[in-house]
Design goal:
The structure is a homotetramer of 361-residue chains. Chain A has 361 residues and is of the alpha/beta class. Chain A folds into two domains: 179 residues, Rossmann fold (3-Layer(aba) Sandwich), CATH 3.40.50.450; 147 residues, Phosphofructokinase domain (Rossmann fold, 3-Layer(aba) Sandwich). Chain A has twelve helices and 13 strands. In chain A, α5 packs across α6 and α7 crosses α9.
């Protein structure tokens, strides 16, 4: 009997989500004759009344390979075990969710999402016997179980393109320009895009920075008649001994989709360089959106196919990963437990330092 | 006798500056055997000691057609008639500039810049008999003398690309997303990119907005099951009867290369929609940098060639313009006097309204 | 009573077709409550049995602004007055078409297409009293009635991007590289993309070329240590006194979506330069596809809105054009009669020559 | 004593070559105070008189990270052990090369190139005691010693972008469209870009194709009302039991930078489908040129840094590779001996089949 499977996408969007959905549908429906049900807005589509579900067939996949975002929508409220109602009160609605899953005849879930989403999936399986398979999604690439997550290289490409643009302006105006990119706990996007975009300084959460080292770098460049400097700052970068990013900031900064870390660097440099001409660009949502690059489309397709295989083989409780360029299933439990942050002494940071990039620490 | 001509680029950079320089050099040097001297950082290169000048020959043009920024650098200090020294005191250094021009044997200047730059050029000509030819540059496209300025369509393209990216995220997250683009006094970039990027609302300086109309638009969309809304805001957009953008804002906003107009809209919507989930992206310097699109490369080339013709024909005091797709020289005086803002009742706004775009007024 | 209107798209596709359709539907349906019927594959959808028609409402427009091609499909068979059946026999099926139009209750047609399509529309109106409004479409930009056609600048951008890519390879390998672009009778794409992409030579139908002038150009460049040369060739370019493009060529060339003009130049140069290392790239379908650039999305939107206005005002028999940046309706009859080719003595060719581009004549 | 090192780039260009050169110079010169000498046009710059060499210092690296091609130029003649003179006669000029290397005081060579180049390097080392370090370059990604080669993903991205463009045209015109990409012996570019670009069929050298299976695929799609089909063909793809690509073809095909494999498929399909409407696009040089994507810039930087480390540590005779995402040195001899072709039963082909892609075998 072909399976009847639900798919959901949880957490922030990442380029490639639709490519994963497409691969699951094309393979599951096309070859195993699954019935695939798309659950809208993470699990919200099963908790609301009326339920918001989409039957996903081969026609649903038309044109979505190249599409950013997710055709299923996503949700940041999300956790059915601690679900906020409109008044902000939090209740455990997992029992409702479980009965909705059963009521819809779903024999398994494929849950595409970050560690929060995967922990929910795991708990649904453990506490309520809902069969789940996971597909990891984190644009920050901070999951040690998988070599690289889909969407990450698209975000790096977007940040690198932004650096190419800022370069010409910085050079024309003899300016220090700061680009703030995503990365609250892991600096992968800043690190890779900074190398790719020819940044002069890269500030990441893993290496607290001393602003004096940035000042030195800027002045050394000036002495070589390089009057501009490009700094990439991960949103989680902090000064050594300080917590610039952690202090309660003014509201514009939040509205502006971040900016606190970049502004903190700008303020510190302004003070020391006695200039008022340092500018911060916050890449924000421009990193997440847009069509996935080819790399991510291929990766997302492989992961989607792998997820179908896991479900078809009854390997519930596993999450599909890329390990040494091979697609493998690992226990969700293991996969979500370990983060991968940038190793300050690792080869990639060393290569960046070798080409003259300053990390501020 | 071939001419010896100085070129300078003043004000903010715009994609196509290097294409103008290249055309002047290729034509002036290649066909009229001019000596061309690039003055670095607007007029600063003639005011500083030692002077910073570059001989521009055919080799200097290698690879610059595709390059954003300006190989000559630019300056925002700029006005030699009211030149700020490091202490902030302002002095008239025009006499110095004039003797430097004569000392360098420059028989004419081609001045590429906005209205501020052109007014300086004009004054150099009137008060000091320095022969000048102008090339208009304003990324805001707010000069009535010319159909369109180079760099403008590249900025529109950048903003439209950003909207494409924001679209998928807005849709995935059921969000109101605001993109702030350049345009202090004229809303051309917001208007054209908003139409091109499928925005739902466009706010421009020329049409003060009533936030209630935005709320209505958002709610009408929701009733049609369109749970996201994209708003493009020109940095000079203001609420009807108010001056949101004009009030002294918190420093992060300035550091962030703008954002005040976008944040004001976000705050106003937040209050009325009772949500905390509205995000602002400030495109900022990402609009100015990067390689010019083909349209701007062609336009910049035509203008550069036209400027050489003006100088060669001794038509000093003229600025090279595009009028009904023909290249013509006009008196600088006339050209810099008249701005072109968006006509709220014009065909372009009407077309935008026709496809359902709300202007808030 | 709201109108019931049919839309069709005829001839080769051009970036912006869907943006025109979207504007017509958003305005016609959204503001005048039209019923809009999309006819599939030009008029084929009305001639086949069962008919292939789509009701176009606001939902049909979701996501199509950015989409290349046409959601209605198109046809190259097309002419209902001389319609080829599968055996190649040609019959007049206009009477059938007219009764299908009446049978479907269509009170007017908006016909988006090139001169072939517009002539058919005109004949439907004259001979059969079918009310039609036209929207001009020619990627070659060879229609004198309108300043510029949608899709053209996207094609120029694609060709210019291709030249940027070829440049680096040509330079690395000291090579003559030839890019063949569209333009059977008019060289606009070659001319504009050649200027934008920094080509050394541009060959267009309007200026028959003498291959010796190309050889001279290549050798002059070599003497300046520029060992590579980039040549853009319109598919309709011909040698002076010859008809290289017109002779019956070998089949690969046709299969390859063109190439004859480019290959002819390569062969001629090979003979004279005694090298076997000249390469031709045929841009072909890569020029037509893909998302329209912002310029074309705005233009297409304005034209679509203008077409609705014409129909709503009963100005049947007119075609919507851009004239001196204003949207105007003109009699179809006048508009399709006059082609605009490149003026060999015009300002654009002169500007290209000024920056050193060789036309071969 | 700092080293004096020569760098050369050999074979076809690949996006990232300049990023490798930049990393070597920035690290070697900036941190080890090397003297770096760029040899122009592979080894030709040392064999010609006068020699063509460039001193590479930090200023030479300005702006080259984003630049396609190679600032050193390359050569396809290349082999100094069997060097063709202008008359086509081949002589061993290795002794001359070796004395030029010694004469210039080069204490080592870093040779960036494909297997041909590396074999020459190895022979210079073995036969003549010239210390060499290699950096692998093959846009085809067919070297088993390294996980992935720089430039490859940029080529995949270019091919995937081309497929996105062809898609809309194919769909608008109900057409079979064929894209021929690079890959004489290995189908990696076709495979990855085909998956990324949503191709319906992928033909690679490793899986000889039966055209009847393509016909079946096209007809199955038609029965599902999908009237267009996209086929990616590697230039080395051959029919089962046949040698379509190997037969002596007409000259246009060679001039057109390939096309034989794509045309062969088109001819075979034309015969069986009784249509004359199948089009081939040859991506050709558009795959090699242009700015490297971020992925390749990072990879190239890491490899350049690794090459400097090898030389600095005296590990001559090694080539720098990426193995399980770690940078390692391997004996050149081992590295060049083993090609990596697509495994017809491997996971990537299986994933492609899973989403419905037909390989024709």
């Amino acid at each position: 009997m072909p399976l009847r499977i639900g798919i959901s996408t949880g957490g922030g969007d990442a380029p490639g989500l639709n490519a994963v959905i497409r691969a699951i549908v094309k393979y599951g429906v096309g070859q195993y004759h699954w019935q695939v049900v798309g659950i809208e807005d993470a699990f919200d589509g099963l908790l609301e009344s009326p339920r918001r579900l989409q039957t996903l067939d081969l026609r649903s996949c038309k044109g979505i390979l190249t599409l950013g975002g997710t055709i299923l929508g996503t949700s940041n409220r999300g956790d059915p075990f601690a679900y906020p109602d409109p008044d902000g009160k939090v209740t455990d609605r997992s029992a409702e969710l479980v009965s909705a899953i059963r009521d819809e005849g779903l024999e398994g879930l494929i849950s595409i999402g970050g560690d929060g989403t995967q922990k929910i999936a795991l708990r649904l399986m453990r506490d309520h016997d809902i069969p789940v398979v996971g597909v990891p999604k984190t644009i920050d690439n901070d999951l040690s179980a998988t070599d690289v997550t889909f969407g990450f290289m698209s975000a790096v490409q977007a940040a690198s393109d932004a650096l190419d643009r800022l370069h010409t302006t910085a050079e024309a105006h003899d300016r220090v320009m700061i680009l703030e990119v995503m990365g609250r706990d892991a600096g992968w996007i800043a690190l890779q895009s900074g190398i790719a975009g020819g940044a002069d300084c890269i500030l990441i959460p893993e290496i607290p920075y001393d602003v004096n080292r940035l000042v030195d770098k800027i002045e050394r460049r000036r002495s070589l008649r390089r009057y501009f400097t490009i700094i990439v700052v991960a949103e989680g970068a902090v000064p050594a001994g300080g917590e610039a990013g952690a202090s309660p900031g003014p509201s514009p900064s939040r509205r502006l989709g971040g900016g606190r870390a970049g502004v903190a660097v700008a303020e510190a440099l302004t003070e020391r360089l006695h200039t008022d001409d340092i500018r911060v660009t916050v890449l924000g949502h421009l990193q997440r959106g847009g069509t996935p690059i080819a790399f991510d489309r291929v990766l997302a397709t492989r992961l989607g196919v792998g997820a179908v295989d896991l479900a078809q083989e009854g390997r519930w409780g596993e999450i599909i990963c890329l390990h040494h360029d091979r697609i493998v299933g690992l226990p969700i439990e293991e996969a979500v437990a370990v983060y991968r942050t940038v190793d300050p002494d690792g080869e990639l940071v060393r290569a960046a330092r070798a080409v003259g990039i300053e990390f501020g620490g």
